[in-house]
Sequence to fold (1437 residues):
Amino acid sequence: MKANLLLEDGTMFEGINIGSGGETIGEVVFNTSMIGYQEILTDPSYYEQIVVMTYPEIGNYGVNSVDVESDRIQASGLIVKEYVDYYCNWRAEGSLQDYLKESNIVGMEGIDTRQLTRHVRQKGSMKGIISTETDNKSELKKRLDRYPSIINRDLVKDVTCDAPYIYNPDRGDYKSVVVVVDFGIKRGILKCLDWEGFKLIVVPASSGAGEIMKYNPDGILLSNGPGDPSAIEYAAETIKELIGRRPVFGICMGHQLLAAALGAKSYKLKFGHHGGNHPVENLETGKVEITSQNHGFAVSRESLEGIKDTGYEITHVNLNDNTIEGLQYKDIDAYTIQFHPEGKPGPHDSGYVFNKFIRLIEDFKKND
Amino acid sequence: MPRRKDLKKILLIGSGPIVIGQACEFDYSGTQACKVLKEEGYQVVLVNSNPATIMTDPEFADKTYIEPLTPEFVEKIIKRERPDALLPALGGQTGLNMAAALSNMGVLEKYGVELIGVDIDVINRAEDREQFKESMDRIGLYVPPSSYAHSLKEALNFSRKLKFPLVVRPSFTLGGLGGGVAFNKEEFVDIVTSGFDISPKSEVLIEKSVAGWKEIELEMMRDKNDNVIVICSIENFDPMGVHTGDSICAAPAQTLTYKEYQNIRDASIKIMREVGINAGGSNIQFAVNPKNGKVAVIELNPRVSRSSALASKATGYPIAKIATKLAVGHTLDEIPNDITRKTPACFEPSIDYVVVKFPRWTFEKFPGADSNLTTRMKSVGETLAIGRTFKEALQKSIRSLEIDRYGLGSDGENYLNKKLMGKKLSVPNQDRIFYIKYAFEKGMSIEKVSKYTKIDPWFLNNIKQLVEFEKSLKKYNLGNVTGDVIHKAKVHGYSDRQIAHLLKGSEGEVRALRKKMKVAATFKTVDTCAGEFEAYTPYYYSTYENENETVSSDKKRIIILGGGPNRIGQGIEFDYCCVHASFALHDEGFETIMINCNPETVSTDYDTSDRLYFEPITFEDVMNIVEAEKPYGVIVQFGGQTPLKLALKLKDAGVNILGTSPDSIDLAEDRKRFGLMLKKLNIPQADSGTAMDVDKAKKIAKRIGYPVLVRPSYVLGGRAMNIVYNEESLVDYVKNAAVVSYDKPILIDKFLERAIEVDVDAIYDGEELFIGGIMEHIEEAGVHSGDSACVIPPFTLSREVIEKIKDYTYRMAKKLEVRGLMNIQYAIKDSVVHVLEANPRASRTVPFVSKSIGVPLAKIASLVMTSKKLKDIKFKKVDSTSINYYSIKEAILPFNRFPGVDTILGPEMKSTGEVMGIDSSFGVAFAKTQISTNHMFPTSGSVFISVNDKDKDAIITIASKLSGLGFKIITTEGTGNLLEKKGIKCDRVLKIREGRPNVLDMIKNGEIDLIINTPEGSVARSDGYYLRTAAVLHNVPSTTTMSGASAVVQGIEEMKNNFKARVKPIQEY
Fold:
């Protein structure tokens, strides 16, 4: 079955359907990770996005029930150069194609994904529609135009948990209790925190400060999540109330939300950072860490000027484009990281940031 | 951090001659290192015995020593130059071994030389198995259990503890030399015993085999600030059990999930830290159990390697260059990425294509060699291909091989045998991939093929898909096939030749149809970042996609066709010429475009030419680029036979071939036309004829008289060339040679016995001739020129003969209308100069001559090809016959890789590489070449002499000299009687067939230090054969020609009398 992709700027690509068939709309972003398609598809930060894998052969090792970052495919579509209809791996439980079909996800193969990637790089990320139903350009364009932009939309509400829950309830002893505010958290982050010895209480993004403090946590984690951080003002409000009361660690959207709560702003990157090979310099050690990245927005340097009184420090910088990748706010016992220290998929070079949370919490307890 | 300012002068070690296991990848790495060090403002001192390298070009280092790579010689250089530091890690295992030896000898300490890039502790931790195992234990990584053994008993004891199969690796050998996998006790005893012989320390490592596991390699870099990155992952198509140099490889790894890959990545970072590599690159090999993901660390190379050359070309990340920068104090984050310019070199390349490396074997050169693939590397070169899918890259890599295949089968070639299928699948061999396809054609399942081959089903499925696609393609013919179907075929990597075969048409018809259907190749950029950033480096590969990324320019462009994979007969020398042409033409204002598919070379560095196309060198692939680039002209005469073969076809397609016209090339190749030309010019040539069949051949041979030299036309490296002494052998030959080249006739020449062979390299511009070198061979005519040692200046030729050679060369160049380089081989017999052959193209000896006389022949020739006149080019017109020093080239033979193969030299070339010795004395220069080829002849001891009747006269002088030098002479009965008659005292020993103890026992017991043995005719498996093969195994220097023997004697004489072995950089000659 044929599948067509139409971009917001009118560019059209013709390919072959590999998913459920039908139609899907999302922001088209490319990911340069060569491995890890299952983690990427299930990462809630890809919600409402159509992911283009730049590596041309996808599906090689199938899918399994372990390598997931949430309980379902979150991306709204998948575009690859060649879908490999034969998988082989000792952990594989099924094919990527069946997985897409069962999850009702539209996917396509057989297009010049490098051309598409270069197009997005040059023109910036934009909306796209994949359809197996029609190749009528004007019809597709109509549907695409009707669809709202990712900017200023609250996507978090669709991916956060419905009710609070305890992660790994069976764990015995723990060092501290952390409330995780779920803006669309990846399981990998929970696993890393769990491994560090935290008891994790995951709460919906809409939880108020009072609700969160009810758990009397030792620390608060602001998770990653999809879309525009400025669209979820309620979260920024909650965070404002929490500032200084408990140590806070933010990852990805959590990083942007804390900055927003303190008065800084985020801006949309031209085509975002999506991949597993970005060099980030840790300004405290001078060392470079290869990082996993997935974000379309970044905290603006200029806007930080306005919040000088918070005593913020830039701790991490992306060496490719000099964007901010980490911030530390000593006065309020908080630090945030823009990239994904848990990898999934991607390197583990920055795993120390999870351990840092333990020390921050312990110091906070001592001084309290 | 800025570069180190405390260092001023740095000594760089090259890797020496091309051998199996260590090829021109170290010219690529060494050249990059030289460039970087010079750019950084250091004085560079380079030592390398291999003249055919770019790095030994005088302009790449301040002082270039073409001297033997032994600790003694390097010490002399250190003493003379007093460098501050030694950089060994770019010179392969040779470099590391040298560093270790110099350190152990106390040389580095004595002269205050600092090792940079890698230190001795790191080398030891990586190379010493026990230390390596301890290190891995400390960081919790699994290494297959292993143990060293120094005796068979020790080995057997260990084998009882572990289950078979076991891997045996002799210590301190290269490329798995002498090693193997033993599946039972009998094999085990065999391999261990011969392993003790081969290992210089009589030591073998016995290791639990993980044969059948996935083989994964990671290319790593780490700087002094502990920044660690992975450049590339490589997965072998052939699982563990086949040497990685003999494995088909894919990059990036194809069958690992994120979790498994990160597991290996984490392990690699730990290993880099634990072993302590802190200023350079490393290659780490892992085995992964496909059943449960268990990871075993196999080995670590703390240096730039063949795999890093592959990884560099596969990703666009210049590992050798960056490694050099790290060695002089830079850190990864401050080095910019050349390709994106804006981003730093401290990142991990992401690629959006698939790379396949395919090994190139030359078993046809070594009849009788075991052609199964094991842990002992046997390939002599490799190709690399880039495609958007594995299938496309695989097919391109095969058609790059220069084996007359145009992809994975379906090209009209069919020699597969169903009866052999099971064995060909289960025992790795060079045809296995074709048998895999064959098995699918015969309906075998993926599971079954995987069971036989242990190859990951994912790879196999790709081949099965090709089989299925072909089935659907074959339903069409040229008349009804659609553009979509043709496009699909191209996406799968099919060449026009294959499509033509499958659709029952011709290549030309498919090409025409394709053009009509607008199915054209597009070109994509290798950019290190999968399109995320803009790339500034024009490094392209072809594929069949939507978007074409080549950019136009208004400069005049010249395409230079490279030489393809290294193989015997066509090596680094041709790459040297191509690179020189590119440099010279770029400086002349042209935009140079290189096409090549050999990842080991300097020509495939993205900064050698203005544009690089990593592509097969076939008519189709070249034409695709010609159509995209619209060049002013194409150069075919520098890349050896590969591009030369395309000359006529390209010309017919309207391409402007620069330099000598394809018609002249054909005139020189066509014996009949060439013979007529010589007759007209009144230049003597050995009697000859051209035959298409047996009867004609017999007639010709009878007319000109035996012995005759026979060969197919259009070959390089003397492929299938032979000297035939009687009619019976002639008939045999003609029948077999037909397989070699069916559409070309067989050439029959009168063989001039005991003639002196001379090689000439010259440049002609239409008016003026410049003779670069007249080289006199040490071995007599009949030994392929690539295998024989040759000397500049000629050392026995009279002035008269030399003048005659010059005259003939000039007249032939004029008649052939040569524009550029030309190589002529002469045979001089009784002062008559005969022409053996003339080749209007760059020859193997161009780099040697250029280094010997200090004139860059290839550069000058490339300018001549663009119509410049010699008189307008500034260079010193050195007369090679009147220089006051000797420069000698000696061949490196790979016999130790092929146990059991006869080492006798003949018209078929067998050497893989060459070394050069230069000195004011002939004897010392020759001695230097012998030291460099690791055949250091003795200055005392016993020499065994056994020669055939023809050589009985010549041997007397040689034996008497040796006896006078204090050698004990040992001979067989016949030779002994002769020598004693002349008053030379000798001991007798039994011939092999006469009983025991015989000469073989003496060799095995180390009682013989030198062997002079000339063959007794064509008796296969004669005494001589056993003698020569034993000599190779026990590394006893041996010579099989009289002229070689006299050179050896002269060398021994001078070494004994006044061997001071001075070292001197070529810049000072």
Notes: The first strand of chain B starts at residue 9 and ends at 13. Chain B has a mean pLDDT of 92. The radius of gyration of chain B is 28 Å.
